[in-house]
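sorry for the late reply, my laptop died twice this morning and i had to redo everyting from scratch. anyway the thing you sent over, i finally got around to it. pasting the sequence first so we're on the same page, its 478 residues, then the predicted structure underneath. double check i copied it right bc i was rushing
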Amino acid sequence: MTPKKRATSKSKSAKNQTGGAAKAAKSAKPKSPKTPEAAKSATAIPKARVPQDTARLPAPRTEPALPPAVSPALGADDRARLLLGTHHDPHAVLGAHAVPGGVAFRVFRPYAQAVTVAIGEVRAALHDDGDGFFSGLLPLTDVPVYRLLVTYDGTVHETEDPYRFLPTLGDLDLHLIGEGRHEELWKALGTRVMTHQGVTGTRFSVWAPNARGVRVAGGFDFWDATGYPMRSLGSSGVWELFVPGVGEGELYKFEITRPDGSHTLRADPMARRTEVPPATSSVVEVSHHEWGDAEWLARRGEQAVHEAPFSVYEVHLPSWRPGLTYRQLADQLTAYVRDLGFTHVELMPVAEHPFGGSWGYQVTGFYAPTARLGTPDDFKYLVDRLHQAGIGVLMDWVPAHFPRDDWALAEFDGRPLYEHHDPLRAAHPDWGTLEFDFGRREVRNFLVANAVYWCEEFHIDGLRVDAVASMLYLDYSR
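ok and here's the structure:
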């Protein structure tokens, strides 16, 4: 099969973002403490129903108080790995754990002046161990449900402790990911707003098997990922963290510690929403769209495609009538195509891509409709309106290659991961892009699940696969 010939353009490499560099274990405390729990919504895309987990208090409550015995501080190795972003299991040392003599509480809050544990009406101040570490041993028989009172610059913030929660992914998810057979991969990886152990927040999860450590950076922590290390879930290569109070519209990226110890700030490969380019952050997404195309879907399943009329209008949405949003296109494009008598539209790539001057064939956000024209729900509205008018929706899908932008998929965790490990096999000679490693089961799963995702979540009726020849022939353009 010969792929369509279309103009393609190399994506512009975004400026390398490596924020949140790890501090050495003996670094000095900053003079102007930040307040992650009080991060304002200016760093996020405003949306409805954002969970609110943080409350400012006029002063810490001291009565009744439970004086803690100072617990042994974290060992030097754990402290160093947490500060450097190379700890595989922060939940094993942070949070609350039953130990001989009571329950040990350990909290890692860089820039905090003080931390107090709140158990119902009881308050217990923790000992400041330096470098943002706080600990205390309380005379309790069981690990309680608790909250933290964290003092920044004289102001107390009440918040949940992310390190008191169990993993949000189960063994079945991890098994299917490891075997490359997870048909709904987007429900296991990426972000998901959820209620976990009675608390509302967002689960962050990412596949990065070569990483020495992964942390979450975003507006909620002022893009300093130091205090939000993720845990590695066994041998799956998946890293996970549930962050209470983070909700829809929040911007984020993953700070990955490469095998050589350096750090790279990466967009989420499974992000279902992105910032408007040229910005490159991922966005926590929750869909609120209510579909109205049940009649179309039922009729589609009753008639064989090859026995029905089939005429296709191909369209590049951003340039068809420049300046229109998905919702505006829903009115104008639907009427235009219906009046011309076409049965289907074929959308040139709508998945997120960095270079707006291209047709969109160099994709960086495989699970996100381009934010240039609106939100994912806005795109669903467009598809819905076309279906209600009796018009099918096809989509160009690009599973052959991806651009080299250093905030996206290229050497995602410090080594070739989505691309082939052999640079001669990975490099596409015509387009300057990288070809997917189709021999790796997790990569095949990423792509197959992506095709299913567009059909299930956006009701796409069919996919036109781009650049098939370059996927089939090893000597393509070589």
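DSSP finds nine helices and 25 strands in the chain.
thats about all i looked at so far, will dig more tmrw
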